[in-house]
Amino acid sequence: MPSVMLRFYEELNDFLPTGKRRRDFALACRPESSVKSVIEDLGVPHTEVDLLLVNGRSVGFDERLQDGDRVSVYPRFESFDIGPTSKVRPEPLRQTRFALDVHLGKLARLLRMFGFDSSYRAPLEDGELVRQALKEQRIVLSRDRGLLKRRAVTHGYLVRSEIPRVQAVEIIGRFDLSRRISLFSRCMSCNAPLQNVEKSVVRTMLPAFVSDNHEQFSRCPGCAKLYWQGTHWEHMKRLADDVIEAASGSGA
Ligand SMILES: [Zn+2]
Fold it and tell me: Higher confidence at residue 190 or residue 82?
C-alpha cells in the first residue's frame, strides 16, 4: 500500500486524534486514493479546507496520491487572500447566504434577526438541503460531519458550539460578518426581507397598547407577521449587542 506523509495546520487539528495533531505523520492509503477521501477518512470535512499542497504544489480534492507524497492541508486563512493560489475552492460566493440543517432552527432565527439570508426547513431530507444550497448558492451549516462530507457540498461549515447564541458568534466571526449586520431587517419566522409599513395601514390589526405606544412598523411580505420595537424587540436587541460584542472580542 502506498504511504504518504500528512500535516494539518491550525484549527484543522481539532478534527484529528491527539497523536496526529500539529505534526507530520505517515499514513498508508489505498492505491489511487484521492486527497479528499484520505483527509475525510481522518475526520476532516473537505469544506473546512481552503488549500491543499502535494509536494509543495497546489492541487484539487481529486488529486490521486502516490507513494511518498507529502500532503499539507490548510484551513481558511484569516490574514491573506489565497484566491490565486488555491485549487480546491470554486469562486467564493459573493453574498453570504446560508442553508441550515434540521437541527439548527434556533440559529436560523438568530441569523435572520441579524439580517442574514438563512434558509431553514424542518423536516427536510439532507440530500434536498444540499440540492437547495447548491442551486441558491448557500453555505451549508451543520453539526453533522457526514452531511458536510458529501461531495456535492462545495461550501459548508461545521458548527462547533451546541448553544445557539454561541453558534451565532461563531458564524459571524468565521465569515467575517460583523460589519454586515442589519438588525431586524428579515423575518425571523420565514426569512423574507421585511418592509416598512405605515401605521395607518396596520392600525386595525394592532392591539391598543401597541398602537398607542409605537410609531414604526415593518411587515413580512412572506407570512404577513408584523414587527415593532416592543419588549421582545428590546430583549432581542440586547442579545444582538452581546453577540456583536462577543464576535468582535474573539478577534475573528
Ligand atoms: Zn415572515
Answer: 190
DSSP string, the chain: --EEEEEE-GGGGGGS-GGGTTS-EEEE--TT-BHHHHHHHTT--GGGEEEEEETTEE--TTPBP-TT-EEEEEE--SSS--TTT-SSS-SPPSS--EEE-TT-HHHHHHHHHTT--EE--SS--HHHHHHHHHHTT-EEEES-HHHHHSTT-SSEEE---SSHHHHHHHHHHHTT-GGG--TT-B-TTT-PBPEEE-HHHHGGGS-HHHHHH---EEE-TTT--EE-SSHHHHHHHHHHHHHHHHHHHTT-
CATH fold, domain 3-75, is: Ubiquitin-like (UB roll) (3.10.20)
Query: What is the per-residue pLDDT across 74-133, written as a single tens digit (0 to 9) for each?
Result: 887 644 445 566 677 665 555 789 999 999 999 999 999 999 999 999 999 999 999 999
Position 252 pLDDT exceeds 60? no
CA of 191 to the centre of ligand 1 (A): 6
Ligand 1 (ion): residues with CB under 5 Å are: 187, 189-190, 192, 220, 222-223, 225
Distance in Å, CA 209 to ligand 1 centroid: 23
What is the reported pTM? 0.74
